[in-house]
Amino acid sequence: MAAAAQDAYTWEQNHDSVIIKVQIPESTTKSDVKIKVKAFSLHVVVAGNEVCSGELAKEVDPEEMSWIFETRNGIRYLIIDLPKVNRTAMKKARIWPCLWKDEISAVAQQVVDESLAGASAATTDAADAATPAEPK
Prior knowledge:
The chain has 136 residues and is of the alpha+beta class. It has one helix at residues 104-130, and strands spanning 10-13, 17-23, 33-38, 41-46, 49-55, 66-72, 75-83.
């Protein structure tokens, strides 16, 4: 598994970046944060605890990575911004299906399953529509 604890962080994305948000103690200082980013991998340790580590689903630009501390509603967070490397003009290809490479097959299977379920429902609906109504 890519994360030390699945609920240790959340992530979101836009067309340009992947943003990882880690809830941290108020006492956390910048010297407590260790982040190692490569084009296809991320390793985050806060106060000696591994938050996440693994091979990323797609490529990021390690040179442009940044992080900050932020407090929202009295809760302190470490916010990590990982700029995406977009090697295609297709906007759809810029969206990551998941954060970690080892989750891609599970996400792909979920898409296939949902597609098949939708196709099955459409086939049933079409068959129902093609069946003539019984006379009254």
